[in-house]
Amino acid sequence: MEELGLTAKYRRAFKRTTIADPNAKVRGDLVKRQFNPPVPTTGLCGDITYLRISQGWMYLATVIDPRRRRPRHDASALADRKESAIAQTARKNLKT
């Protein structure tokens, strides 16, 4: 490689872009760390997963049932922009 003037391409470390606001109000723990609610679908949570595709990024929002510790198959949404509407769409798709 040296004779041909080639060098390896190194991956750079992930650069964190979010800076926490030291004056921001801390949100309360609404579920009080209770991840096994007594009634199903009363303590749902969500997640947004970034999916890299050839044209850029897609975002998959899912509703997660903490009792089963799995995403709900009936509550997800896919979008090409990361906006709050994707999480709302996933929640609306939820069949209770």
TrEMBL record:
Biased composition of type Polar residues is found at 86-96
Annotated stretches, region: Disordered: 69-96
Q: Where is the composition biased (Basic and acidic residues)?
A: 73-84
Q: Known InterPro entries for this protein?
A: Transposase_IS3/IS150/IS904
- What is the protein name stated in its UniProt record? Putative transposase
Tell me the classification of the organism that encodes this protein: Bacteria, Bacillati, Actinomycetota, Actinomycetes, Mycobacteriales
